[in-house]
Amino acid sequence: MSRLRITEIFYSLQGESRTVGYPTAFVRLTGCPLRCRYCDTDYAFQGGVWMNLEQIFTTVATFSTHYVTVTGGEPLAQPACLEFLAQLCNAEYETSLETSGALDISAVDPRVIKVMDLKTPGSGEENRNFYANLDYLLSHDQIKLVLCDREDYDWAKTILEKYRLFGRCEVLLSPSYNQLNPTVLAGWILEDHLPVRMQIQLHKYLWGEEPGR
């Protein structure tokens, strides 16, 4: 039976993306090949417990929610994640995947809402962006860029224009928590009339850095 290494399964309000604010079940997988400078879930790099998919589904069902987010770490670092995502869709959960953009997304079930990062220079992992993934983004997917400073913002504008990402799917710009002032980022977006959604991490403003929130 397929299984996944799990750091935590918890119930909270979605803090980011198009479904921000909705009560959501989160399944956080263990392990990540990246080491972003601003990472706020480094506790998921190691450890975790092995659970078979039936056990995970049983836990998720206790939360009585329509929304499930599979996150990490980097979920796609575990091959069984693809099967798990498809099964969530089969069970009629609105399923989203938070992925770094460094690993191939081509085999992800098309029903899954992919929330894919593009890593900026400030992340320290810009060279890990797998740009071939852009060909597999669908209209219901989202591209997320976490910005650390003005250099990251200018880089983001260049990349978004170079790959003609405006209009391909929703673009999310997010200020790195406690690093880039959200008001400053809002001003830049308005000044440049960028067709993007700015987001802040709602859960951070509600519960700070507390794991499982």
Automatic annotation (TrEMBL):
Binding-site residues for S-adenosyl-L-methionine, renumbered to this chain: 38-40, 73
Domain of life from the UniProt record: Bacteria
Enzyme superclass (EC): lyase
PROSITE patterns: RADICAL_SAM
Binding site for substrate: 13-15, 28, 71
Pathway: Purine metabolism; 7-cyano-7-deazaguanine biosynthesis
Manner of cofactor binding, per the entry note: Binds 1 S-adenosyl-L-methionine per subunit. Binds 1 [4Fe-4S] cluster. The cluster is coordinated with 3 cysteines and an exchangeable S-adenosyl-L-methionine.
MF (Gene Ontology): 4 iron, 4 sulfur cluster binding; carbon-nitrogen lyase activity; magnesium ion binding; S-adenosyl-L-methionine binding
GO BP term (any one): tRNA queuosine(34) biosynthetic process
Keywords: 4Fe-4S, Iron, Iron-sulfur, Lyase, Magnesium, Metal-binding, Queuosine biosynthesis, S-adenosyl-L-methionine
Pfam families: Radical_SAM
Residues binding Mg(2+): 41
Record EC number: 4.3.99.3
Entry cofactors: Mg(2+); S-adenosyl-L-methionine; [4Fe-4S] cluster
Reaction catalyzed: 6-carboxy-5,6,7,8-tetrahydropterin + H(+) = 7-carboxy-7-carbaguanine + NH4(+)
Domain Radical SAM core: 19-209
Function description: Catalyzes the complex heterocyclic radical-mediated conversion of 6-carboxy-5,6,7,8-tetrahydropterin (CPH4) to 7-carboxy-7-deazaguanine (CDG), a step common to the biosynthetic pathways of all 7-deazapurine-containing compounds.
Assembly and binders: Homodimer.
Matching HAMAP family: QueE (MF_00917)
UniProt similarity note: Belongs to the radical SAM superfamily. 7-carboxy-7-deazaguanine synthase family.
Protein name: 7-carboxy-7-deazaguanine synthase
Upper taxonomic lineage: Bacteria, Pseudomonadati, Pseudomonadota, Gammaproteobacteria, Chromatiales
Gene giving rise to this polypeptide: queE
